[in-house]
Amino acid sequence: MNRPTRTKRKPVYHQLSSDSEIEVQYEIKKRIGLSCVISKESIESNPPKSSKSLTRSTGSKKQTTLTNFTNPNSSSSAYSRIPRFNSDPGDVTFKKEYNTAVDVRWLEKYRPLTSSALALHPRKYAELKSQLEQMIRKTSASPRLLVLSGPAGSAKTAALRVAFSEITGTPVITATDSTTSTFDPVDIGGSDRGILEWSTPTHLEDVSMMNALQDFLSEARRKRTMNVTEKTLVLIEDLPNVFHPETRQKFCNELYQWLDLSLPVGELPLPPLVLIVSEMIIAGDEANGAIFNKFSTINDSLTVEKLLTRDILAHPFTQRIKFNPIAKTIALKSLKAIVHAEPAAFNNITSSSLSHFLNSTAEGGDIRSSICTLEFWAQSSEGGRHLLFDMPVRSGELGECSITPTRYHSSQYNRPANVGLFHAVGKIIYGSTNDSLASKSKGKGMDRPQLTDQDDNNAVMDVIQQWGQWWRYKLSPAIFENYLGARGGSLGLDVLGSCADIFSMEDTMPVALDQISCDVEMRHLRNKIRTAPDIIGVKPTISSSYQPLKYPQTWSMITQQAREREKIMGYLETTGGLCGILKGQYDAILYHRYYDGIITRQNPQVVGWLDNKPRVLGGGIGSGHTTEEIVDGKVGIESRDIERSKLNEDTWKQHSIYRFTDGDDIED
Amino acid sequence: MSLWVDKHRPRYLENVDYHIELSQRLKSLTTSDFPHILVYGPSGAGKKTRVVATLKELFGPAVEKIKIDSRVFTTPSNKKLEFTIVSSIYHMEITPSDMGSFDRVVIQDLLKEVAQTQQVDLQAKQKFKVVVINEADSLTRDAQAALRRTMEKYSPNLRLILLANTTSNIIAPIKSRTLLIRVAAPTNDEISTVLAAVSKRERVPLPSNEADYQTVFNNIAFASNRNLRKALLILEAMYAQNGSLNTSTPIPPPDWEIVITKLAADIASDRSVRRIVQARAILYELISHCIPPNIILKTLSFSLLTNVQPLVKPDIIDLAATYDHRLRLGSKSIYHLEAFVAKVMTAIEKKS
After folding, report:
1. For A592, nearest residue in chain B (alpha carbons)
2. Same structural domain for residues A432 and A487?
3. Any idea where the AAA+ ATPase domain is (chain B) (predicted)?
4. pLDDT tens readout for residues A106-155
């Protein structure tokens, strides 16, 4: 292997120098954007030099870009409002908590440097920190792999970096400070920053991607022997193409080897490996025609369960921390801190429109997106009027109006309101009081807030907007799975009967009418559940008014059906060849499946099954659980995992214990 | 060694045990110009046996030399579809339920392929080929309409034998173009006779007492619900489990029936949200074992009928009819089954 080949393996974005590319990078991904950031440390050590160079290189370009965005006439005023670190130092404590570099995007500028500035629930942070500490201490029993998972913008990476710096006492490093912190098979020894990050090379000449990862991990292992005292961390955030099954398999194998590596006595333990997974659930894809095709496994959702094999997740050296979308209150705190630090940018914006904006943007649960939006919003507005969208939002008048202006805002600026599937299900089953005054009555013990038609309408509209197009394949099964628990399981049988009938009826609608069916189903259900009378004398079986929601089993059921059908087909072919007649599929399912099992178990000479193993095909029905178990409360509606053990075990196990909470206290 | 149900299957029309006059009629058909036929009747009545025997009568023993291969068909939307075809040199057998919603294209293609090649074997008794379509009642409307065209177009080279459980799902044009042959379920006595003959051939130890001897078979026949296939399987399973048969030998019903019967009894005894949750778990399990939803509904309804008060029975039948229809229209069987359970519970509550 010669030198030039190796250099080619370097990730391409380190070679980026032109400003326009940097601008593009901002839009793409925060981590890529880091390339023009100067850490706090370097500012303090020699401020004049670095800040100057940065202003020169990125600042000027940014101004021109902004000019393009804003009204040309107001371009000069847009300049003056661009926040500058030098002219506007902000308050002192704030500066210490955030990575207040010079003229960069706020996302970078206010990158949290201490745990108090993190937009994360303190409890979650403490969990992460203690886990990481344990790993860095490198006892032989400490975990080797830490999986951080959560939706995009839930402060996973930021929290990890802060935690690492607090543990090791080094300043927070931003990933691309130096090229050495990213992987280069040759220069790996040179990193002194602590975090060793894998980044998927954009092009490779003579090695496959997975071999490169293998090299990276073995380098990381080797490095540990070179420098004993150093506290390092190996980070994998940039996943290979895991939608390709073989790549995913190799990736898992690599991780498993790492976990399973047996270390000789006296050898140093492995450096902690952290895997950050931005989970995403993309609805609908698996539904588009993949139902009847057993060959198709296309599903673009990415979750930890899908990514990693069970061996890895269940391995004693694996630890997993799940991040939730940032709670509104916490996100608000961070956003307000930024507003506070940037008084110039918000000079012309009325406090009411600002608070409307903050509220709506913080709802998304994506702090990264919120900060970006905030910055853009602040810079594109003047005198309370938005130059881009020319939408008047004045103080007071609209504030208490029932068609809340924030809704209008959010459609303009925000990442589309993040109504997750479970959230959507919750909105239909439990109703939502988010937008009304009734929400104030929340928290008074068990009392359900009185919901109005308007609330229901809002809730249904929200859900339909987000999930309407996936109603048939995702939303409806999910609601179906959970509707029995509505009102704490205290609904009368007649109400449940009519609810079930709604599902049944809508299922018979032609696909072309999906939109209407969805609308009708949601409204009908919501209305039925809301108006249902409480049954006297029946106490809700659940102490809290909300229960864990379950992931729909439709898909795992279909998968299992396909598997079963394949076995039956195999059986039919074998026996058909033997006795010269092809049996009917249903005969095989209904009778042969069971009786052949019994007969061949007793008499192995009978050729029934292909492999001649004495068993009932596909396992007997009813063997998984007895009805008594279900009735005896053990697996009643409370713990609702009756079927999980049977049908649902692999893919969605984790999801079924998701908790749904209404409104903004997701973190708790 | 194969199962008794296969081993003792009659190979010739003369050997078929019951519906003798039907066999004679089939035999006489083979001597004249053979029409398209539609054989219908409940499962386990002997439709397939008769059809195979008829084919043998038509073409001679060569039809028994079958090969089973799976074909891959690429649909217009570029999806690969795999299905099984059983064929001899004279006939071909297909099961459209393998093909899902693409049955029209597949069937059209296959039939055209068969029909366009003439019989090459000059020694052949007949100059046409036969295509047997199993489970013809599960063909989509679309496919049935296509079939009707094909029947007219290719009639010199091709004869169709359709097998179905009921003619009600088959469109009228097909019914009018085929000779309808009903194979009724055997009576309990007929089943007992067959069982006795099979046990004798297999030398199953049986009670020597004449009355007991009869009772054993009658019991099985009764449990089989006039389904000869089921009866024979039960017989062999009982023999395999116990080594000998007498009146006290337990008759094992298939597992899914046990589960459904239990569910029906549970629903009749107590109704609550929890019961629905339990029912759902059971329904999910049944469906994922590929038990056809309409069979689940039917079995459940009939076992409910034995458990409830007379007053509720009409309601249950009404609901079963409604949701059976919905099952046909819709695609998510669990919805309809659960709605049926919930509605039945409500009905029982109201009348009690």
Report:
1. B233
2. yes
3. 33-185
4. 777 777 777 777 878 888 888 888 888 887 776 666 777 888 888 887 88
